Amino acid sequence: MSKEQIGVLVMSYGTPEKKEQVEAYYTHIRRGNPPTPEQLAELTGRYEAIAGGVFPLRENTNRQVEALQETLNREHPEYDFRCYQGLKHASPFIEDGISQMAKDGIKRAIGIVLAPHYSVMSIGGYIQRAKAKSDELGIELTCVESYHMHSKLLTLLTERVQSALQRFDGEKVRMIFSAHSLPAKILEMGDPYQDQLLESSKAVAEAAGIEEWQFAWQSAGRTAVPWLGPDITDVLATLHHEEQVKNVLLCPIGFVSDHLEVLYDVDIECQAICKGLGMHLERTESLNDHPLYIETLSDCVYQLLKQ
Protein backbone atom coordinates (compact mmCIF):
# COMPACT_ATOMS: atom_id res chain seq x y z
CA MET A 1 0.00 0.00 0.00
CA SER A 2 1.47 3.34 -1.04
CA LYS A 3 1.84 6.16 1.46
CA GLU A 4 -0.38 9.22 1.32
CA GLN A 5 1.46 12.16 -0.19
CA ILE A 6 1.24 15.31 1.92
CA GLY A 7 2.21 18.62 0.36
CA VAL A 8 3.90 21.17 2.63
CA LEU A 9 3.84 24.76 1.39
CA VAL A 10 6.74 26.58 3.06
CA MET A 11 6.04 30.29 2.71
CA SER A 12 8.38 33.23 3.15
CA TYR A 13 8.84 36.82 2.05
CA GLY A 14 11.21 36.01 -0.80
CA THR A 15 14.35 37.64 -2.12
CA PRO A 16 15.92 38.09 -5.55
CA GLU A 17 18.42 35.42 -6.56
CA LYS A 18 20.72 37.81 -8.39
CA LYS A 19 21.31 41.51 -8.91
CA GLU A 20 19.37 41.60 -12.18
CA GLN A 21 16.18 40.57 -10.34
CA VAL A 22 16.24 43.37 -7.74
CA GLU A 23 14.15 45.82 -9.79
CA ALA A 24 11.37 43.29 -10.51
CA TYR A 25 11.37 42.25 -6.85
CA TYR A 26 11.14 45.86 -5.63
CA THR A 27 8.37 46.58 -8.16
CA HIS A 28 6.37 43.62 -6.82
CA ILE A 29 6.75 44.86 -3.23
CA ARG A 30 5.50 48.26 -4.44
CA ARG A 31 2.38 46.63 -5.93
CA GLY A 32 3.45 47.05 -9.51
CA ASN A 33 4.90 50.54 -9.17
CA PRO A 34 8.55 50.58 -10.32
CA PRO A 35 11.00 52.20 -7.88
CA THR A 36 12.69 55.46 -8.79
CA PRO A 37 16.32 55.17 -9.94
CA GLU A 38 17.37 56.50 -6.49
CA GLN A 39 15.27 53.91 -4.63
CA LEU A 40 16.58 51.11 -6.83
CA ALA A 41 20.19 52.24 -6.35
CA GLU A 42 19.74 52.32 -2.58
CA LEU A 43 18.27 48.81 -2.35
CA THR A 44 20.84 47.39 -4.77
CA GLY A 45 23.56 49.04 -2.71
CA ARG A 46 22.27 47.31 0.42
CA TYR A 47 22.48 43.92 -1.25
CA GLU A 48 25.97 44.69 -2.50
CA ALA A 49 27.04 45.78 0.99
CA ILE A 50 26.33 42.42 2.61
CA ALA A 51 28.98 39.76 2.20
CA GLY A 52 28.44 37.68 -0.91
CA GLY A 53 25.64 39.80 -2.32
CA VAL A 54 22.17 38.37 -2.93
CA PHE A 55 22.83 34.67 -3.36
CA PRO A 56 23.18 33.50 0.28
CA LEU A 57 19.75 34.91 1.13
CA ARG A 58 17.81 32.53 -1.13
CA GLU A 59 20.13 29.65 -0.26
CA ASN A 60 19.17 29.99 3.42
CA THR A 61 15.53 29.35 2.55
CA ASN A 62 16.40 26.50 0.19
CA ARG A 63 18.33 24.76 2.97
CA GLN A 64 15.48 25.25 5.45
CA VAL A 65 12.94 23.71 3.06
CA GLU A 66 15.21 20.77 2.19
CA ALA A 67 15.89 20.13 5.88
CA LEU A 68 12.18 20.26 6.72
CA GLN A 69 11.28 17.68 4.08
CA GLU A 70 14.06 15.37 5.28
CA THR A 71 13.02 15.79 8.94
CA LEU A 72 9.31 15.19 8.30
CA ASN A 73 9.95 12.01 6.32
CA ARG A 74 12.46 10.72 8.87
CA GLU A 75 10.24 11.44 11.90
CA HIS A 76 6.93 10.40 10.31
CA PRO A 77 7.63 7.67 7.74
CA GLU A 78 3.95 6.72 7.51
CA TYR A 79 3.52 9.67 5.10
CA ASP A 80 5.33 10.86 2.00
CA PHE A 81 5.98 14.55 2.63
CA ARG A 82 6.76 16.83 -0.32
CA CYS A 83 7.86 20.38 0.51
CA TYR A 84 7.22 23.25 -1.88
CA GLN A 85 8.32 26.87 -1.63
CA GLY A 86 5.81 29.71 -1.90
CA LEU A 87 7.24 33.23 -1.82
CA LYS A 88 5.34 36.47 -1.34
CA HIS A 89 7.39 38.71 -3.61
CA ALA A 90 9.56 36.45 -5.78
CA SER A 91 9.37 33.29 -7.87
CA PRO A 92 8.20 30.67 -7.06
CA PHE A 93 5.25 32.67 -5.76
CA ILE A 94 2.78 31.21 -3.24
CA GLU A 95 0.40 30.42 -6.10
CA ASP A 96 3.22 28.67 -8.01
CA GLY A 97 3.86 26.34 -5.08
CA ILE A 98 0.18 25.35 -4.90
CA SER A 99 0.02 24.89 -8.69
CA GLN A 100 3.02 22.56 -8.60
CA MET A 101 1.34 20.51 -5.87
CA ALA A 102 -1.72 20.10 -8.08
CA LYS A 103 0.46 19.00 -11.03
CA ASP A 104 2.10 16.44 -8.74
CA GLY A 105 -1.28 15.04 -7.72
CA ILE A 106 -1.22 16.32 -4.13
CA LYS A 107 -4.71 16.29 -2.55
CA ARG A 108 -3.91 17.31 1.04
CA ALA A 109 -1.46 19.95 2.20
CA ILE A 110 -0.22 21.93 5.18
CA GLY A 111 1.03 25.51 4.93
CA ILE A 112 3.59 27.08 7.26
CA VAL A 113 5.42 30.41 7.17
CA LEU A 114 9.08 30.94 8.06
CA ALA A 115 8.04 33.45 10.73
CA PRO A 116 6.86 32.42 14.21
CA HIS A 117 4.58 35.39 15.04
CA TYR A 118 1.15 35.97 13.50
CA SER A 119 -0.16 39.19 12.05
CA VAL A 120 -3.11 39.56 9.72
CA MET A 121 -0.86 41.83 7.62
CA SER A 122 1.96 39.30 7.30
CA ILE A 123 1.17 35.62 7.86
CA GLY A 124 -2.54 36.30 7.39
CA GLY A 125 -1.84 37.56 3.89
CA TYR A 126 0.25 34.52 3.01
CA ILE A 127 -2.49 32.16 4.17
CA GLN A 128 -5.19 34.06 2.30
CA ARG A 129 -3.30 33.74 -0.99
CA ALA A 130 -2.50 30.07 -0.40
CA LYS A 131 -6.12 29.21 0.48
CA ALA A 132 -7.50 31.03 -2.56
CA LYS A 133 -5.27 29.04 -4.92
CA SER A 134 -5.73 25.71 -3.15
CA ASP A 135 -9.54 26.13 -3.20
CA GLU A 136 -9.36 26.87 -6.92
CA LEU A 137 -7.32 23.73 -7.61
CA GLY A 138 -9.15 21.40 -5.22
CA ILE A 139 -6.37 20.89 -2.67
CA GLU A 140 -7.38 20.52 0.98
CA LEU A 141 -5.07 23.04 2.69
CA THR A 142 -4.76 23.91 6.37
CA CYS A 143 -2.19 26.38 7.66
CA VAL A 144 -0.13 26.85 10.82
CA GLU A 145 -0.81 30.39 12.03
CA SER A 146 1.94 30.80 14.63
CA TYR A 147 4.44 28.85 16.69
CA HIS A 148 6.04 31.59 18.77
CA MET A 149 5.91 29.62 22.04
CA HIS A 150 7.03 26.22 20.76
CA SER A 151 9.42 24.73 23.33
CA LYS A 152 12.14 23.85 20.79
CA LEU A 153 12.07 27.33 19.29
CA LEU A 154 12.40 28.94 22.73
CA THR A 155 15.21 26.54 23.68
CA LEU A 156 17.18 27.45 20.56
CA LEU A 157 16.63 31.18 21.01
CA THR A 158 17.76 30.91 24.64
CA GLU A 159 20.90 29.05 23.56
CA ARG A 160 21.62 31.76 20.97
CA VAL A 161 21.28 34.48 23.64
CA GLN A 162 23.47 32.67 26.18
CA SER A 163 26.14 32.02 23.56
CA ALA A 164 26.20 35.68 22.46
CA LEU A 165 26.42 36.93 26.04
CA GLN A 166 29.79 35.21 26.39
CA ARG A 167 31.25 37.74 23.96
CA PHE A 168 30.95 40.47 26.61
CA ASP A 169 33.36 38.89 29.13
CA GLY A 170 30.98 39.25 32.06
CA GLU A 171 30.31 42.97 31.58
CA LYS A 172 26.83 44.41 32.15
CA VAL A 173 24.71 44.07 29.02
CA ARG A 174 21.37 45.56 27.92
CA MET A 175 19.29 43.04 25.97
CA ILE A 176 17.09 44.22 23.10
CA PHE A 177 14.68 42.02 21.18
CA SER A 178 13.54 43.26 17.78
CA ALA A 179 11.17 42.42 14.94
CA HIS A 180 10.03 43.91 11.66
CA SER A 181 7.75 46.87 12.26
CA LEU A 182 4.26 46.95 10.76
CA PRO A 183 1.78 49.81 10.31
CA ALA A 184 0.52 50.88 13.73
CA LYS A 185 -3.11 50.45 12.68
CA ILE A 186 -2.79 46.72 13.48
CA LEU A 187 -3.14 47.64 17.17
CA GLU A 188 -6.62 49.01 16.57
CA MET A 189 -7.50 45.74 14.83
CA GLY A 190 -6.64 43.67 17.91
CA ASP A 191 -3.83 42.02 15.97
CA PRO A 192 -1.78 39.57 18.13
CA TYR A 193 1.60 40.37 16.52
CA GLN A 194 2.97 42.67 19.21
CA ASP A 195 1.67 40.53 22.09
CA GLN A 196 3.14 37.33 20.62
CA LEU A 197 6.53 38.99 20.16
CA LEU A 198 6.57 40.26 23.74
CA GLU A 199 5.45 36.85 25.02
CA SER A 200 8.29 34.95 23.33
CA SER A 201 10.83 37.67 24.21
CA LYS A 202 9.84 37.47 27.88
CA ALA A 203 10.10 33.66 27.86
CA VAL A 204 13.59 33.75 26.32
CA ALA A 205 14.81 36.48 28.66
CA GLU A 206 13.59 34.56 31.70
CA ALA A 207 15.11 31.29 30.49
CA ALA A 208 18.45 33.03 29.85
CA GLY A 209 18.38 34.72 33.27
CA ILE A 210 18.21 38.26 31.84
CA GLU A 211 16.53 40.91 33.94
CA GLU A 212 17.23 44.07 31.93
CA TRP A 213 15.67 43.77 28.50
CA GLN A 214 13.40 45.74 26.21
CA PHE A 215 11.75 45.54 22.81
CA ALA A 216 12.31 47.65 19.71
CA TRP A 217 11.09 47.67 16.12
CA GLN A 218 13.19 47.74 12.98
CA SER A 219 13.06 47.99 9.18
CA ALA A 220 9.86 50.08 9.03
CA GLY A 221 8.50 50.92 5.60
CA ARG A 222 8.75 54.46 4.27
CA THR A 223 5.08 55.30 3.92
CA ALA A 224 2.79 58.12 4.98
CA VAL A 225 1.12 56.02 7.69
CA PRO A 226 2.71 55.61 11.15
CA TRP A 227 4.52 52.35 11.91
CA LEU A 228 5.07 50.59 15.23
CA GLY A 229 7.86 52.09 17.33
CA PRO A 230 10.21 52.85 18.94
CA ASP A 231 12.68 52.18 16.15
CA ILE A 232 15.86 50.34 17.10
CA THR A 233 18.07 53.19 15.84
CA ASP A 234 16.33 55.65 18.19
CA VAL A 235 16.49 53.17 21.08
CA LEU A 236 20.26 52.76 20.71
CA ALA A 237 20.79 56.54 20.80
CA THR A 238 18.52 56.89 23.84
CA LEU A 239 20.32 54.12 25.73
CA HIS A 240 23.63 55.87 25.12
CA HIS A 241 22.57 59.45 25.92
CA GLU A 242 20.10 58.85 28.77
CA GLU A 243 21.29 55.64 30.45
CA GLN A 244 24.98 55.55 29.48
CA VAL A 245 24.61 51.93 28.35
CA LYS A 246 27.91 50.59 27.00
CA ASN A 247 27.03 47.05 25.89
CA VAL A 248 24.01 45.90 23.88
CA LEU A 249 22.98 42.43 22.81
CA LEU A 250 20.39 42.48 20.03
CA CYS A 251 18.22 39.44 19.33
CA PRO A 252 16.17 39.92 16.12
CA ILE A 253 13.55 37.49 17.44
CA GLY A 254 11.09 38.20 14.65
CA PHE A 255 13.48 36.88 11.98
CA VAL A 256 14.50 33.26 11.53
CA SER A 257 17.28 33.55 8.96
CA ASP A 258 20.06 35.76 7.69
CA HIS A 259 18.63 38.18 5.18
CA LEU A 260 18.69 41.89 4.44
CA GLU A 261 16.95 43.03 7.65
CA VAL A 262 19.57 41.21 9.71
CA LEU A 263 22.73 41.38 7.59
CA TYR A 264 22.26 45.04 6.62
CA ASP A 265 19.82 46.73 9.04
CA VAL A 266 21.48 45.20 12.12
CA ASP A 267 25.00 44.16 11.13
CA ILE A 268 25.79 47.31 9.14
CA GLU A 269 23.35 50.09 10.06
CA CYS A 270 22.93 49.45 13.81
CA GLN A 271 26.58 48.48 14.14
CA ALA A 272 27.63 51.81 12.56
CA ILE A 273 25.41 53.74 14.99
CA CYS A 274 26.88 51.93 17.97
CA LYS A 275 30.46 52.42 16.81
CA GLY A 276 29.75 56.12 16.44
CA LEU A 277 28.42 56.22 20.00
CA GLY A 278 31.27 54.14 21.44
CA MET A 279 28.95 51.23 22.27
CA HIS A 280 29.67 47.52 21.94
CA LEU A 281 26.90 45.79 19.95
CA GLU A 282 26.56 42.07 19.37
CA ARG A 283 23.64 40.14 17.92
CA THR A 284 22.46 36.59 18.37
CA GLU A 285 23.15 34.12 15.59
CA SER A 286 20.18 33.54 13.26
CA LEU A 287 18.26 30.26 13.48
CA ASN A 288 18.67 29.39 9.78
CA ASP A 289 18.54 25.58 9.35
CA HIS A 290 19.49 24.62 12.91
CA PRO A 291 17.89 21.23 13.74
CA LEU A 292 15.85 22.66 16.64
CA TYR A 293 14.22 25.21 14.36
CA ILE A 294 13.55 22.65 11.65
CA GLU A 295 12.10 20.29 14.27
CA THR A 296 9.82 23.12 15.44
CA LEU A 297 8.44 23.44 11.91
CA SER A 298 8.15 19.66 11.57
CA ASP A 299 6.25 19.34 14.86
CA CYS A 300 3.79 22.08 13.86
CA VAL A 301 3.13 20.56 10.43
CA TYR A 302 2.57 17.08 11.86
CA GLN A 303 0.35 18.29 14.72
CA LEU A 304 -1.91 20.14 12.29
CA LEU A 305 -2.01 17.15 9.96
CA LYS A 306 -3.22 14.89 12.78
CA GLN A 307 -5.97 17.22 13.99
TrEMBL record:
> Biological process GO terms, please?
heme biosynthetic process
Q: Where in the cell is it found?
A: Cytoplasm
Q: Quick one: which residues bind Fe-coproporphyrin III?
A: Y13, R30, R46, Y47, Y126
Pathway it belongs to? Answer: Porphyrin-containing compound metabolism; protoheme biosynthesis
Query: Mind telling me which InterPro entries this protein's record contains?
Result: Ferrochelatase, Ferrochelatase_AS, Ferrochelatase_C, Ferrochelatase_N
The terms describing its cellular component in GO are: cytoplasm
Q: What is the designated name of this protein?
A: Coproporphyrin III ferrochelatase
Q: Which family does it belong to?
A: Belongs to the ferrochelatase family.
Q: Keywords for this entry?
A: Cytoplasm, Heme biosynthesis, Iron, Lyase, Metal-binding, Porphyrin biosynthesis
- Pfam families for the chain: Ferrochelatase
The record's function comment reads: Involved in coproporphyrin-dependent heme b biosynthesis. Catalyzes the insertion of ferrous iron into coproporphyrin III to form Fe-coproporphyrin III.
Q: Give the gene that encodes this protein.
A: cpfC
Q: Does the keyword Iron apply?
A: yes
Q: Where does Fe(2+) bind?
A: H180, E261
Catalysed conversion reaction: Fe-coproporphyrin III + 2 H(+) = coproporphyrin III + Fe(2+)
- EC number of the protein: 4.99.1.9
- EC class, as a word, reads lyase
Write down the Gene3D superfamilies for this protein, in alphabetical order: 3.40.50.1400
GO MF terms here are:
ferrochelatase activity; metal ion binding
The record lists the organism as Paenibacillus albiflavus
